[in-house]
Amino acid sequence: MATVIEPPAVSMGSERLGVGHRYVKAAVHTGIGGIASRVLQGFAPIVLARYLGPKEYGVYALVLSFVGIVTGVSNLGQNAALQKFLPEYSVKDPARGGAILTDTVIIISGALGVVCTGFLFASRWIAAAIYHDPSLTGVFQFSALLVLALTLFNLASSATAGLQDFKSYSRAMVVRSAAFVLLGWLGVWLLGLYGALLGQLLASILGLGLLTAAAIKLSRVRFPGSLRPRFSKDVLKEIFSFAFPALLAGLLVSPAYWWTNTLLARHAGFEQVGLFGVAFAMCQLIALVPSSLSVPAVSFMSETYASSNPEKFSELVGSNLRLIWALTLPIAFGCALFASRIVRLLFGGAYRDASVLAQMMSFVALVIAVGGIAGYAVAGSGRMWHACWINGCWFVVLVVVARFLVWAWGAKGLALAFGVSYALLAGFLCIYSVAFLHVRFEGLKPLVILTLVCVLSTVVLTKSLAAAPFCVTAVLAEIGLVAAEWRTVLRPSEQSRLVELGSQLFRANAA
Questions:
Q1: Sign (positive/negative) of CA torsion 252, 253, 257, 260?
Q2: Mean pLDDT, residues 420-431
Q3: Among 104, 201, 225, 373, which residue's CB has the most CB atoms within a 10 Å radius?
Q4: Alpha helical stretches, state H, 338-444
Q5: What average pLDDT does this structure show over 148-163?
Q6: Tens digits of per-residue pLDDT, 344-353?
Q7: What is the pTM of this model?
Q8: Beta bridge partner(s), residue 16
Q9: Contact, 354 vs 343, CB < 8 A?
């Protein structure tokens, strides 16, 4: 997650780089664009869930989770490599940076053709053997086009982020999200499930066009005369030494979502998957602000780590974690308190049974946001094989825990499994960052105490108070939490910086 603290300039070679200033500026751009994009994206599940109903929305969620796996395979881990290598070599060796960018595009294009063709021919087997429903064959066949569009869109977005053109990145994200809301609504209204997938496809193609134009223009400036393939041994070795473990680490995430949802579908039915999908959508809404600020994280952490100044890297990571925790906790607490009302308002009465799941996933979103900071630090340091093994351990824990808890409690068990596995992952990543990256996490004790109080307060308030007293008490509790964080968590310099950032966001929004 991007920080709002401005560390001193970092020296790289003979050039003084104002990393902190550019980091804050990038965070503002991605914050504005990301929040607008995520708000628009947040409407999509609401529209689709209302029109499709729990069962078909469950099918839609499962299809997208499977598409996520195939898309993850198709990029060969190159998206993470672009965000690390492009900012690094635009300073150190533009010729090598241009070769890495060109080689990556060619490699992914070839792999994508093979993967999409295989996915198309395997669709009947996937529908019959995995989901025991041959009628889903056409849905998976159509999804091959979605894999193509999403993979290219992710490639273009990673190149744009690696080139640090976050203004174009944010603009494309907003346009794509707005297009998906409109096209998804029209599609599901006219064609049902296929229309929802068609809306996703067309929106991704539109965003791809915008990102590709921006990336081509800026890459010609950053790497003049160097945008040509160079499949030399040393270039390919460097690309895949980072990309291959990044691919493996990423592939352990998407299959986890798909497998756990498939387990839930086979054990409790598609309706339970739909209910959990609503809770997971709320989890993503809570992560809207921290995830929007996270876009520049790997790029700038990589640049700071390359400066060989452990103090500045430690400050960047430690401040990020504390500030993102402080930022996300009030959002998660408020959503957990009002989960039943939010679910009924946004998704309708058919999803009222998802209220408890939404409460649980609200705090899971907090854990994911906090653990993500330490994960970005590992990626920024280039230790992707370590990240791969850590993700592997998380995957095993989630699979084992979910298998028992889903059998026992259905969707509630799956939400609990996500909470347990992500809490262990966040804790281990923080320990790793301290032991191997020499990061100092300071000022976390008040946040731990406040988080435990929020969890207990949610349980007590939602079970003991009637509607009117509950609303008053919940609002006062939320205000008290924000005040407590302001006094006990944030330093005076951070308070000033947050006020300044808020003013920048407001002025940019007004403009």
A1: positive
A2: 94
A3: 373
A4: 339-347, 355-380, 384-409, 411-436
A5: 83
A6: 887 888 888 8
A7: 0.67
A8: 11
A9: yes
Instruction: Tell me the per-residue pLDDT of 383-394, one tens digit each, with 9 for 90 and over.
Output: 878 888 898 899
Measure the CA–CA gap between 389 and 319, rounded to whole angstroms: 26
pLDDT of 8 higher than 50? no
In 306-354, alpha helices (H): 310-337, 339-347
- 204 and 150 Cβ atoms separated by less than 8 Å: yes
CB 329 within 8 A of CB 366: yes
Whether the CA torsion 277, 279, 285, 286 is positive or negative: it is negative
Contact 30, 170 (CB under 8 A): yes
d(CA 284, CA 292): 11
Phi, psi of 309, deg, nearest 5: -120, 95
The residue whose two tokens read 């509790």 is 477
Crossing angle between the packed helical segments 19-74 and 137-162, to the nearest 10 degrees: 150
Rounded to whole angstroms, how far apart are CA atoms 478 and 331? 9
CB of 164 closer than 8 Å to CB of 87: yes
Pairing of strands 15-17, 10-12: antiparallel
Report which of 289, 336, 322 is spatially closest to residue 454, judged by C-alpha positions.
Answer: 336
Burial (CB < 10 A; 0-12, 13-18, 19+), residue 476, is exposed
Spatial contact of 204 and 71, defined as CB atoms under 8 Å apart = no
pLDDT over 70 (residue 510):
no
Q: Which residues of 213-249 are buried (b: 16+ CB within 10 A; e: fewer)?
A: ebbeebbeebbeebbeeeeeeebbebbbebbbbbbbb
Q: Alpha-carbon distance 324 to 328, whole Å?
A: 6
List all residues 6 or more positions away from 463 whose beta carbon is below 8 Å from its beta carbon.
none
Distance CA 35, CA 226 (A): 35
* Of residues 270, 353, 368, 342, the one with CA closest to residue 42: 342
Task: Report residue 75 as tokens.
Answer: 């990029």
Model confidence pLDDT, tens digit, residues 240-292? 776 677 667 666 676 787 788 889 988 888 889 889 988 998 898 888 777 76
Q: CA dihedral in degrees (196, 200, 203, 207; nearest 10)?
A: 170
Token reading at 426: 């966040």
What are 248's two structure tokens? 């493996």
Bridge partners of 17, per DSSP, are 10
- Cβ within 8 Å of residue 314, ≥6 positions away: 437, 438, 439, 440
User: Structural domain boundaries of the chain?
Assistant: 19-251, 258-511
Question: How big is the CA angle at 156 (ends 368 and 183), to the nearest 5 degrees?
Answer: 80
Q: Is the pLDDT of residue 140 over 70?
A: yes
Q: How far apart are CA 205 and CA 208, in angstroms?
A: 5
